Amino acid sequence: MSDETLMECARAVSSVAKENGYAFSNEELEGVLKYTEQKCERAGKGEWYFPLLLETELKDYLFRMAVNAEYQAREARAVG
Question: Which residues span the domain enclosing 52?
Fold first, then answer.
């Protein structure tokens, strides 16, 4: 990956983290990066596409976390 692409990826991570007030752990980033790489390869897109897809996948990751947290809270209320 070129230096420019790496910088764009860093900006994407920083932007999503700042917009959502969230600090991604190394494990979370590693997982999202691997998933993004797999999707990028399956789509047959070039390196230029990776930072764009990464930003979307980071946002989707946070959305899924929020949905899961809400579901768990509702389940806990229903049980308790």
Answer: 3-79
Nearest residue to 42 (alpha-carbon basis) of 53, 31, 51 = 53
In the numeric block, the tokens 């930072």 are attached to: 51
Other CB atoms within 10 A of residue 36 CB? 23
Structure confidence by residue, pLDDT tens digits, 32-54: 999 999 999 999 988 999 999 99
How many Å apart are CA 37 and CA 40, to the nearest integer? Answer: 5
Reported as a single tens digit per residue, the pLDDT across 49-60 is 999 999 999 999
Beta-carbon contacts of 61 under 8 Å, excluding residues fewer than 6 positions away, are 28, 32
